[in-house]
Design goal:
Its EC number is 5.4.99.5. This is Chorismate mutase. GO terms for molecular function: chorismate mutase activity. Residues 24-115 form the Chorismate mutase domain. The protein has a single domain, classed as Chorismate mutase (Chorismate Mutase Domain, subunit A, Up-down Bundle). A two-stranded antiparallel sheet has the order 1-2. It has 4 helices and 2 strands. The longest helix has 41 residues, at 24-64. The N and C termini lie far apart (58 Å). It has helices spanning 3-7, 24-64, 72-88, 93-116, and strands at residues 11-13, 19-21. The protein is mainly alpha-helical.
């Protein structure tokens, strides 16, 4: 038996090497948890889509008024706010900051594109 087959007696290793849980109660709990994760992932994607709709409007407004795509003061406030929210939610603040920095970089890229297209975003 391979190492993975001996570590968890309720796990049956399939031909593809992925573990399939033999215990029906464990399998049901995994399914329930994974369905919750899938639902949360879908909600995150939809929330990000809504956020980007708002930031596109901000980008158009900035372009129309010849404002810079980036706003470092706003970004710093957002990072501090998100770190605090993460701490309160018992989420690693450094992870939350990395995620927001990734989102901010994408937003700035969109704003630069909008500014380069004369404010239309096309």
């Amino acid at each position: 038996m391979s190492h993975s087959e001996t570590d968890h007696p309720d796990t049956v290793v399939g031909a593809a090497g992925s573990g399939a849980v033999a215990d029906p109660a464990v399998r049901a709990e995994l399914t329930r948890l994974r369905e919750s994760i899938d639902n949360i992932d879908a909600a995150v994607v939809h929330m990000l889509a809504e956020r980007f709709k708002c930031t596109q409007q901000v980008g158009r407004l900035k372009a129309e008024h010849r404002l810079p795509p980036a706003d470092p003061e706003r970004e710093a406030r957002q990072i501090a706010r998100l770190r605090n929210l993460a701490e309160n939610a018992r989420l690693d603040p450094a992870f939350a900051e990395k995620l927001l920095n990734f989102i901010i970089a994408e937003v700035i890229r969109h704003h630069e594109t909008i500014a380069g297209s004369g404010g239309t975003g096309e």
